[in-house]
Design goal:
The chain has 129 residues and is mostly beta strands. It has one domain: Sandwich (Immunoglobulin-like). The protein has strands spanning 6-11, 14-16, 22-27, 33-41, 51-58, 61-72, 89-99, 105-115, 118-128.
């Protein structure tokens, strides 16, 4: 049986399949915060393949990549093999954002998500409080 692989982006407790280029997140100044999670799964709801993050850049802080973080499969899948995976967890990667000390205002985190030779450039608008 051919494995069915999917890429998910979990953001603000929601998942979005191949997200729009710009997303938004509110964080506290100076506090490391997971701003995005990525994972992939197969037909059997098990981790499949690898998601990579590259071309990270940020204007007013730092970003780190954490590997092997839990990623809950979610989404608005109405039917098909992926429907049975909703609510289950796989290991994936996360982007952790920390603003510069004392910084408040708008920031942008830019990165590329790659899965099975397909990529998506994403801009994350961060509102630092």
């Amino acid at each position: 049986m051919k494995a069915f692989s999917s890429l998910i982006v979990l953001f603000l407790a929601a998942s979005i399949l191949f997200p729009t280029p710009t997303l938004a997140k509110v964080v506290r100044s100076g506090v490391p915060t997971i701003v995005a999670r990525f994972g992939s799964w197969n037909y059997y709801c098990q981790q499949a393949g690898f998601v990579t993050i590259s071309k990270l850049s940020v204007d007013h802080g730092t970003v780190q990549i954490r590997k092997r973080v839990p990623v809950k499969i979610g989404g608005k899948v109405a039917r098909g093999s992926a429907y049975g995976c909703v609510g289950k967890t796989v290991k994936g990667v996360a982007i952790v954002y920390t603003s510069n000390r004392g910084y408040r205002g708008k920031d942008k985190v830019r990165f590329r998500v790659t899965f099975e030779r397909k990529w998506n450039d994403i801009v994350l608008d961060v509102n630092v409080k």
